[in-house]
Protein: Phytoene synthase
Amino acid sequence: METQALNPLQVLRNHGKTFYFASHLLGKTEALRCARLYAFCRYIDDIADESADKAWADQQLADIYQQIEQRQAHDRYAADFLALAAECKFSPQPALELIKGVRSDLQHQQLRDEQALMHYCYRVAGTVGVMICGVLGMRDPTALPFAIDLGIAMQLTNIARDIKEDAESGRVYLPVQLIGDVQPIAISEPDAFMRAYLKIGIACVLDKAEEYYRSAEHGLGFLPWRSRLAILVASRLYRAIGLRLCRQQLAFWRGRTVVPVSEKLLHAAKACGEFITRPVYHQRSHPHQAELHRTLQGLFGTDSLQRHGDGGYAPSGSGV
Structure:
């Protein structure tokens, strides 16, 4: 597995180009911590994606889950993750939800409805938003729902961008409720009718992503200013994938949509300009829209938990 042979910054540079681009706006300590978190998440993902033996992969993930749950790790990446959580004083609990989400891909079935889609996006990406808050030193639990929203928005963008690639791997993430019961082969080799039909589903997913991107930006004020700018740029660069896909008429059958460097620079420059001129990025007064977490009731860090005073963080100074 390539991830095991590289240091965290190399993993981020090779596999997380958008995040690597934005990491240059962070301080060195924060950038390295984010890279360590990314390397752990990528490692978990690679176990599921790169193994031909799904039973072995599931057992590996179950073992790592147990190590993190018990706070005793012999796996290199699990140990570094626990060290990072202790160093930054955040709970490892979101990583357990992440592993649940990744394990679900090993026995993948087309998601049934919006709730299943949101749960999946929360587990594989919203949890990462929660952990990023910890890595960046954000201690206010009120911010967690906004961080979850950014992760969900990015995962919805991934689903829209990778629909053909996922179908070629036997996976369909657009739910039955949205597009009906569709076999992967119908997506990987679509006829004219299926192309038009799926474009409607992709448009719906990207519209949903926009709701979560907008919400996430209202939570930026909880972050230190330098981290605030880096996350805004990362958000805008990821959002640009969906915008470019729309400009390409949602032609998913042509392969993965890639945003060229020149366009990334333009989006980054625009984000920096708005960061300076728009007060909303420096305020904490905007309430989170609880409706966005309607299907996520009771999950770690979501609006439902936050309203009950449980932001999901360990007390300051805790060694968990």
Notes: Residues 11 and 17 are 10 Å apart (CA to CA). Residues 305-320 have pLDDT under 50 and may be disordered.
